[in-house]
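User: Can you write out an input/output pair for a complex, sequences first and structure second?

Assistant: Here is one pair. Inputs:
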Amino acid sequence: MTPMQAKKRYFKVFVPSMAAYIITIFSVVTIIKSTELPVWVQYGLAIIPALCVWLTLWAHGRYIMETDEYDRHRQTQAVMIAAAVTLTFSTGWGLLEMLVDAPKFPVFYIFVLFCAAYSGGCAINALRGKTV
Amino acid sequence: MTPEKAGFRFTVLYTPATLMFVFANALMGPFLARADSPLFAHYIGAALTAFAVLVGSFAFARVMKDSDEYLRKLTFESLGVATALTLTFTAAYGYLMTFAAAPHVSLIFIVPLFATFFALTTGYQFATGKFK
């Protein structure tokens, strides 16, 4: 498969899953805040946006496996940078939360942090003259 | 570089990093939790733990660079699956915390969660005969 075909297949999943993510986030927040639902229903509803996150990550993984060697190498570097930044931050901040009473960091922002760090990893590759 | 040598270089770096992580958490934790422990010791504990995670991440990056194509692919598969599962879990639990009033979980547990997923996926690769 060519890198272009792999990218096309990636966007065919990425765009609908991100759209579904935005729709489900707003819907779930509205439903939970405006109605009195049993706790297990709230748990079920709260998990729906996470399934969209999983679908996006699965599509990204598939893209990395399907694209060519060069792109795969660059993507791998960017993902590793993102994972290192996310894990280091979560450990450091987690300890500060426990020991110094630092403000509680909402756990669902971890995915956002990973995405920001991944963009940073791609930017580093681009600055070094190697496009992702 | 041979895969054996790459594995040895990984172990030489990863083992002290893991020991530092365990030391900073298990041994310094009870000391730091005491009310009379100095504030700077808390920051040092947090910095040591975060540094251990950073060194561990660097060890992963180096083993992927040093080893051959096949091992690199297997390591990235494990890393990718572990990252995706960790992010999906944090996203799901984050929504539960925010919308369904689930109890707060410290960010410090994200690294052990990631390590567990990584160990499981690597174990699966061993079980299916991909690793020799």
